[in-house]
Amino acid sequence: MPVAPSDNIYTPRQQYVLLIVCLVALATLILLGLGSYITAFLGAGILFVVFRPWFKALVHRRGWNRQAVTLGLLAFAFVVIILPFSALSLMLVDRIRHYGQDTSQIMTVLHTIEQKTGYRFTTEQNVRSLLQQSVSWISQRLPSLASGLLHFAVVIGLMLFTLYFMFTQENDFLRGLRRYLPFRNNTLHELGESLKNTVNANVLGQALISLVQATLTGLALWIFQVPDALFWGVVAFFMAFIPVLGTPLVWGPAAILKLTQGHTGQGIGILLVGLIAIMNIDNLLRIVLARRMGNIHPLITLAGVVLGVEIFGILGLVLGPLLLSYFIVLMQVFERENRLRPKLRGSKIDNIPHVEPDANEGPADPQ
Q1: Transmembrane segments in this chain: where (predicted)?
Q2: CB 107 within 8 A of CB 127
Q3: Burial level of 195, CB count in 10 A (0-12/13-18/19+)?
Q4: What whole-number distance in Å separates Cα of residue 314 and Cα of residue 143?
Q5: Within a domain: residue 4?
């Protein structure tokens, strides 16, 4: 039997507020339920931004089949990005665990430094404890099969599955963003530009810079006969995502190692290559790529990396700076809206009725 409107104990405003509370509560439960799998959807969003220019060129301009292009992009992402990145992560975790269990090489270097300086500043027990803590911290933030093959497979499957529908149902996806995000069109445009600049700068640009720096670091260590040059080159690739510090955390200790072993020429050679070539190529590439792939302030990148890695793991290298970029954009929007509000009230623009866009119109291109 239908309930009469007068029998409802809530006012229309209370119903509206309770509806919002229910939506927020259900969204919170969904996010908590997804838990560690949320990175799959965030990764799909990043890959969508990276591959969309290719998708537009092949589907919208050349008229290729949408499903075929999507499957090709998924295969490319899996073979070229996911598999190599996972292999590098596994290699890094395994070797760090090895060094964490065998501290003899590190203790030899530390004892040599202590003999030359005359100060005793550590013990083997402290070094072993520090290395074990580092291994535990890194293992938790790098995607690894050690955390469970099923979990790893589900994350990759969800990411590719989500990316497939984002491309095959592109119009509905973009229209849904415009419809349900609580922002004006110009704000959505700013957020889209911020997303594109951050992803380009921290995925495409930074990955290219990291690859070049890691290659130079690995070659320098190999030329100057540093053990495990390939492994330390992989470490340099991940370290290069960190502004300012980056690769000096790799070739700096390697140079110290050679100097403490009495190989002064090799140690000085590593320092010269690091200071002259590796660090300068970083500055040069950043200047060139900033004009084409988006320019993100180093402070935002550094703070974002620290924030993002703690929350999202290795994906935080991109998501952290993105969060800070979005926060800055929203603060600018808030400031602009507050300045415009008195003018809008004075001109009575607030009384103009809102006109919904035509359902037949396609979504605005965020890029």
Answers
A1: 16-34, 71-93, 149-167, 203-224, 230-256, 268-289, 301-334
A2: yes
A3: buried
A4: 7
A5: no
